[in-house]
Design brief:
This is DNA binding domain-containing protein, excisionase family. The chain is built from 4 helices and 3 strands; from the N terminus they run H-E-H-H-E-E-H. The protein is an alpha+beta fold. It has a 3-stranded antiparallel β-sheet with strand order 1-3-2.
Length: 85
């Protein structure tokens, strides 16, 4: 069995993790967005998006535990179908 230096292993692992963080998915390719991403994407304020997510039967809210995400396609449709928010 080959002996591995623990410091080399840590450096290698940290380098791989750093590389993975650099590979981000473009917003238009994501299925669900964070509130901040949705705000940047739509140019609608974070507070307004959070308010919309609190409305009953909101068509674009996705609950992941306690976290609220925005379903991108439904959000785009909501914006296209409304002239005022």
């Amino acid at each position: 069995m080959e002996m591995v230096n623990i410091e080399d292993y840590k450096d290698s692992t940290l380098a791989k993790m750093s590389e993975q963080k650099k590979q981000t998915v473009p917003i238009e390719a994501k299925v669900a967005l964070t509130v901040r991403e949705a705000a940047e994407y739509s140019n609608i304020g974070i507070n307004k998006i959070e308010s919309l997510l609190r409305t009953p039967r909101c068509p674009f809210v996705l609950y992941v535990g306690k976290k609220k995400l925005v379903k991108r396609k439904e959000f785009e449709k909501f914006i296209a179908d409304n002239i005022e928010i």
